[in-house]
Amino acid sequence: MSLWASPAITGGVPPGQPVTSSTDPIRRGRVLGGSSAINTMIFVRGHRSSYDRWPESGATGWGFADLLPYFMRTETAPGRDPAVRGTSGPLTVAPANPLSLVFEACLEGAEEAGHRRAGDISGGLEEGFGPPDLNIVAGRRQSAVDAYLTPAARRGNLRVVTGALVHRVLVHRDRCDSVEYSVGGELVRAGCTGEVVLAAGAIGSPQLLQRSGIGPAAALRPHGIQAVVNLPGVGEDLQDHPGVSLVYAPGQPLMAGRFNRAEVLGLLPNDPDVGYPDLQIAFTNFPVPSPGDGGPQAVLVVLVALMQPFSRGTVRLASASPDAAPVVAPRYLTDSRDLDATVRGLKIARDIPRTRALKPWLAQEIAPSPDTRDDAALRTYATAAVLSCNHPVGTCRIGTDDLAVVDPELRVHGVSGLRVADASVMPSIVSANTNATVYAIAERAAEMIRLAHENGR
User: Fold this and answer.
1) Closest CA to 237 of 205, 265, 211
2) Coil, strand or helix: which one is 24?
3) Whole-angstrom distance, CA of residue 305 vs CA of residue 296
4) Helix or strand or coil: residue 239?
5) I want to staple 128 with a disulfide (CB 3.0 to 4.6 A). Which of 116, 218, 272, 457 is the partner?
6) From 24-38, 91-105, 218-232, 371-385, the region with the lowest mean pLDDT
7) How many CB atoms are located within 10 Å of the residue 248 CB?
8) What is the DSSP letter of 304?
9) How far apart are CA 157 and CA 177, in angstroms?
10) Taking Cα atoms as reference points, which of 417, 387, 240, 244 lies closest to residue 315?
């Protein structure tokens, strides 16, 4: 699910150092509801072009039109087009209303800079700038627990175990038949005659599979793990949205909004020749420590995030211990095409704060400095300031090739009784915060499991 990075005012990777040396965190929600309990509460589908690439890579039946019914099933979106937006789903989603004055100025500034105002930027069919839908209901976050788990809590066939650490899944005769976990120092083995479904996310799911002996044999051997199923794609193809921030000191106080401090975003191509939108430009009102004894002061951050990166990373075990964090190598901007696109995105985004609409709100650019003008300087800045947008995907991707991990039914290759249903199965990253897409994947997975049970397979 989606969680935006904090603004890169300073920090990141020192200029001239490889991006892979960074130890910046990728945040995840270790709590009921996962990252839906800690994210920025933005509920946006990617542009349809990013989903329509999935069938081309072997994810048959996973194009935008295939996923649309499941997107609609997740949501109640008042005032949106009921032909493409849901009217009776468990998640109630809507834009900030009214927009904070500074965000209204950001939207006007984007139009003044020549960008289209979108009618529904969350629907997956438009480019341009607009207020995205938010998972905020009556002033409170609506997480997956609120929308799905709490209403189901009274079911007799549901047991929720909290404070548990999953060690591994166990496979006998090519079938997953149990899960091993610990609670309070006690080791528990839960048997399963049906199916085990992993939903630990794009970092947790490949880590768990590798600890279970399902993954690249050569990478497991140094940790003393015997490969039960040699699946070389487990932990490969890690993708994320790399974000680089422009930061501005305010010309007048930026009052905290009533919503989530991020009420407007845009989706557009970095160049007209690209043919699809691959940049997200988002505005956020962000509190930072002030000098002296004063309280936090807000700055305006314009986040430029690359939506369709070419760079790929990995998730690997640090050790066989279930307590050990994995080694995550995201490799942001290591493909030169990504760095070029990010620099073009920074130049596009920089034009918006210079508009008349935003002039009363902004005093000066803090990062990068106004002296950072040419492409070489912007490349240095982007390399130093890049951070994760906390949208990791792709490490257990759908497909039929040698590096695919699950088939189009989300079943792990080479193992029966085991599926994965989270952001890790995405064949490629979508052009949006990943929250809404993960809900749609979960809805479709639930239907697949139900149909398999009804059909006795």
Assistant:
1) 205
2) coil
3) 25
4) strand
5) 116
6) 24-38
7) 20
8) E
9) 19
10) 240
* Confidence check: pLDDT of 19 > 50: no
Catalytic (active-site) positions: 391
pLDDT band at residue 9, thresholds of 50, 70 and 90? very low
Segment (H or E) for 50: helix 48-51
Q: In terms of DSSP H, where are the helices of 117-246?
A: 144, 150-152, 201-211, 217-220
CB-based burial label for 94 (10 Å; 0-12, 13-18, 19+): buried
Indicate the burial class of 158 (C-beta count within 10 angstroms; 0-12, 13-18, 19 or more).
Answer: exposed
The DSSP bridge partners found for residue 248 are 300, 365
Burial 300-338 (b: 16+ CB within 10 A, else e): bbbbbbbbbbebbbbbbbeeeeeeeebebbbbbbbeeeb
In angstroms, the Cα distances linking 118 to 110, 246, 281, 452 are: 11, 23, 13, 40
Q: What are the tens digits of pLDDT across the range 353-366? A: 999 999 999 999 99
What are the φ and ψ backbone dihedral angles of 347, each rounded to 5 degrees? Answer: -70, -40
- The neighbour count for residue 258, using CB atoms within 10 Å, is 14
- AA letter at 325: A
Count of helix runs (H) and strand runs (E) in the chain: 10, 22
Joined together, the tokens standing for residue 80 give 């949106």
Do the Cβ atoms of 424 and 412 come closer than 8 Å?
no
Nearest to 130 by CA among 283, 232, 252, 275: 283
Give the model's pLDDT for residue 255: 77
**Helix segments in 154-196, DSSP class H:** none
How far apart CA 202 and CA 207 sit, in angstroms, is 9
How many CB atoms lie under 10 A from the CB of residue 391?
Answer: 31
3-class SS of residue 131? coil
Neighbours of 449 (CB within 10 A): 17
Burial class of 173 by CB neighbour count within 10 A (0 to 12, 13 to 18, 19+): exposed
